[in-house]
């Protein structure tokens, strides 16, 4: 019997992505695997059932009853998890941090669950790094939102009514999302600067044609993330940033660490010091926001400054986001399937470190 790889239609509010695209379904079939999807699983992402070749479709109950490997974008709800047979493998963004109830359900059903956001940030893991692929989408969309909502043009324009100077834009955080935001602002013609507490990001920021904002605070960490600033470092950072913020027309903040609340970088006082008409787009709104005034999913006006806290940014470009995400899933699945059977190699650090539960054992401390 061949392995059945399955996916359901995502049901979270605003979620339009799908874990298996027609391209990846074809690759899975090429490996001799059976693909079973819920009807209309990919429609919201731009993939109607007719776009999938040699794929079977069924109801939610049929998919859950027959799945050997269930791929997901966001964690399935408890009803879906309890509908799976014991021993099924679940792969996706399972958000295990602070989700003890979900982890308990995975364990009680004796499901082997892999949370791809737990993958080590190594070169070998890049092909299956869902955080990076989806952050690139989020960074791109955050800057488009900034350009759409800013009261000024981003590029310099020469018109019969005179020359319009370009907007001055700052991106805080130079991870994947931040760098994509910088690149997008550059394409849109803005005068762009980037800032990160990790000094090694300077070269990446400057390679995109942006100026690196120097605040005199360094917090190089491990695993691709910055270490937590000391109180003295944070005070020095905020003092220097508060003065420089006065010159910017738009600020996009992108600082986030999976499983933790987003660091507060922009205080209320700093926002009050910005120029009237300035705009902040807080990409970290999903995890609480980098600005003290951010309200997730809302638009806030404070002292003439607009603060936007958009949610589920990657889901807003579902076709390309799904294509990248599904490729991540496929590349990880190759580590799980050997000789036509599901045989994860737990001596492989990518498999071991991303595993949340295995045969009833909890391997992750939620």
From TrEMBL:
<dbReference type="Pfam" id="PF01262">
    <property type="entry name" value="AlaDh_PNT_C"/>
</dbReference>
<dbReference type="GO" id="GO:0050661">
    <property type="term" value="F:NADP binding"/>
</dbReference>
<feature type="domain" description="Alanine dehydrogenase/pyridine nucleotide transhydrogenase N-terminal">
    <location>
        <begin position="6"/>
        <end position="138"/>
    </location>
</feature>
<dbReference type="InterPro" id="IPR036291">
    <property type="entry name" value="NAD(P)-bd_dom_sf"/>
</dbReference>
<dbReference type="Pfam" id="PF05222">
    <property type="entry name" value="AlaDh_PNT_N"/>
</dbReference>
<feature type="domain" description="Alanine dehydrogenase/pyridine nucleotide transhydrogenase NAD(H)-binding">
    <location>
        <begin position="147"/>
        <end position="309"/>
    </location>
</feature>
<comment type="function">
    <text>The transhydrogenation between NADH and NADP is coupled to respiration and ATP hydrolysis and functions as a proton pump across the membrane.</text>
</comment>
<dbReference type="GO" id="GO:0006740">
    <property type="term" value="P:NADPH regeneration"/>
</dbReference>
<keyword id="KW-1278">Translocase</keyword>
<dbReference type="InterPro" id="IPR007698">
    <property type="entry name" value="AlaDH/PNT_NAD(H)-bd"/>
</dbReference>
<dbReference type="GO" id="GO:0005886">
    <property type="term" value="C:plasma membrane"/>
</dbReference>
<dbReference type="InterPro" id="IPR007886">
    <property type="entry name" value="AlaDH/PNT_N"/>
</dbReference>
<keyword id="KW-0547">Nucleotide-binding</keyword>
<keyword id="KW-0520">NAD</keyword>
<keyword id="KW-0521">NADP</keyword>
<dbReference type="GO" id="GO:0008750">
    <property type="term" value="F:proton-translocating NAD(P)+ transhydrogenase activity"/>
</dbReference>
<protein>
    <recommendedName>
        <fullName>proton-translocating NAD(P)(+) transhydrogenase</fullName>
        <ecNumber>7.1.1.1</ecNumber>
    </recommendedName>
</protein>
